[in-house]
Design a protein that fits this description.
Among the domains are: about 125-230, no CATH class; about 255-360, no CATH class. It has helices spanning about 25-45, 55-60, 80-95, 95-105, 125-155, 160-170, 180-185, 195-210, 215-220, 235-250, 255-270, 275-295, 305-320, 345-350, 355-370, 405-410, 410-435, and strands at about 65-70, 75, 170-175, 225, 230, 275, 320-325, 330-335, 450. The chain contains 17 helices and 9 strands. The longest helix has about 30 residues, at about 125-155.
């Protein structure tokens, strides 16, 4: 809608697509294919728990997918599903320009069209000065945040790490009022910047399973953007995910599609250290098709499902492969190598060096066997058409759920629109009545306490 300078594009349609909250066949088919994909992992592994970040990503982005411990299968939670459909469709409706501008008018913004772009840009010197000032403010913020992050990493150690574990479990509540700063310090918690604690505690606790505190700090330094003096959390989170992949690979708990993805991606990068973007896209698309074809019972024309899997595959690629910026159209790629030594867990458990050496050698041999093991290809399973699952559609959510009844007879869409119109009218009246009243100020000071 807007270009990088904040201006509206030359042509934006003012036509408004009506709000439609009904659940259609396309939505149900997409949900059907997601559930098939999740349950395929269970069937493939005979109920044995395997690590599959692709499935985890599907579940994380589709909150209505739940696991039934009794039946050991994934299913769709009706309430969460209907709420998800509502949020997605209303969000799409509300982002339309005319809907957006009408909503802004409710907050007393004045909206007017203009085709003049030069007015704000006529004084280039002023714009450059503004840009420099803005960058200076950003740099100051980055410097302060980065300084606080490394202070936090210096503060956390083997002696107080358990307190932060309890913090994640919800046994401490962190609140931001400075008057409780001393109380937080008495509990041996980092007091300089609570936001830093909230953001970094989950990262540090996960990494602590595999690395000591000094190594965790090295990983953060590796992810530091030296030009901006800012921690690249995207890079840091990719490392976290790769650590889990490698750990589960060594424990032989990596699901086959992920094991094959990692091996094939590494092989491709080793054989093709310099490629063009099209070759990467083709490899990712090819893997996506192979993986999807290995899952039985999917609807062959479900484009939304295929695109969602492709998106996750592209994201997973950035976890296992280091990719340079294009130079003259060429991109350098190589497998991501975890260069940090993990904790010597065996030495912590067995003090005897001979026992340690024996177990280490056995561990190395096991890893070698797994690395050298030839992985087969994906099986190709039958797909379905929309006509094949027509009779299943009413029962995909559960046996009593019928999307036709909800979309045609329930009338929830009409009721919501009427409610919204009534709310807007009441808001307008209330604004007139309370025009002179000051806004209430709510004190949100909070306390840290130990349960």
């Amino acid at each position: 809608m807007f270009n990088k300078d904040g201006f509206l594009n030359d042509f934006v349609s003012m036509h408004v697509k009506p709000l439609d909250l009904s659940i259609n066949k396309k939505d149900i088919i997409f949900a059907h294919d997601l559930i098939n994909t999740c349950n395929d992992m269970i069937e493939r592994n005979n109920d044995e728990s395997k690590y599959n970040p692709l499935i985890q990503s599907l579940i994380a982005s589709n909150k209505y997918i739940k696991f039934d411990d009794t039946d050991a299968k994934y299913y769709i939670d009706e309430t969460t599903y209907k709420l998800n459909v509502f949020e997605e469709k209303y969000s799409e409706y509300a982002k339309q320009l005319k809907v957006l501008t009408e909503a802004m008018k409710e907050f007393n913004y004045t909206i007017f069209p203009t085709v003049e772009r030069t007015e704000l840009l006529k004084n280039q010197a002023e714009k450059d000065a503004f840009d420099q000032e803005l960058q200076s403010v950003k740099n100051t913020h980055y410097n302060k945040e980065t300084d606080d992050i490394f202070k936090f990493l210096d503060h956390i150690n083997d002696g107080n790490i358990d307190i932060y574990k309890e913090l994640l479990k919800g046994n401490y509540e962190i609140f931001k009022s400075d008057k409780y700063k001393e109380y937080r310090g008495d509990n041996d918690l980092f007091v300089e910047n609570i936001e830093v604690v909230e953001k970094n505690t989950p990262i540090v606790i996960q990494l602590y399973r595999f690395y000591d505190c000094a190594t965790i700090k090295q990983i953060y330094q590796f992810c530091l953007d030296s030009k901006k003096n800012k921690v690249n959390f995207s890079k840091l989170n990719r490392i976290r995910r790769l650590v889990l992949i490698e750990y589960n690979k060594q424990k032989r708990r990596l699901d086959f599609p992920i094991m094959k993805f990692v091996k094939d991606a590494y092989d491709f990068a080793m054989l093709n250290p310099v490629v063009v973007k099209k070759e990467i896209d083709e490899w990712q698309a090819n893997y996506t098709v192979k993986y999807v074809n290995s899952i039985g019972g999917l609807v062959v024309d479900d484009v939304d499902y295929l695109e969602s899997i492709f998106k996750i595959v592209k994201d997973l690629w950035t976890v296992v492969i280091v990719q340079s910026r294009p130079h003259n159209g060429h991109i350098k790629i190589e497998p991501f190598d975890l260069i940090w030594e993990r904790k010597d867990i065996i030495d912590n458990i067995y003090g005897d060096s001979k026992t340690k050496e024996f177990l280490l050698q056995e561990f190395i041999e096991n890893v070698k066997v797994e690395d050298e093991e030839e992985l087969g290809e994906f099986d190709v399973k039958d797909k379905l058409t929309e006509e094949d699952i027509e009779e299943q559609l009413p029962t995909i959510i559960h046996s009593d759920y019928n999307y036709d009844l909800y979309s045609e007879q329930d009338g929830s869409n009409d009721r919501f629109i009427r409610k919204q119109e009534n709310t807007n009218r009441l808001d307008t009246l209330n604004k007139k009545d309370k025009a002179q009243e000051p806004d209430p100020i709510i004190n949100k000071d909070l306390i840290l306490f130990d349960n």
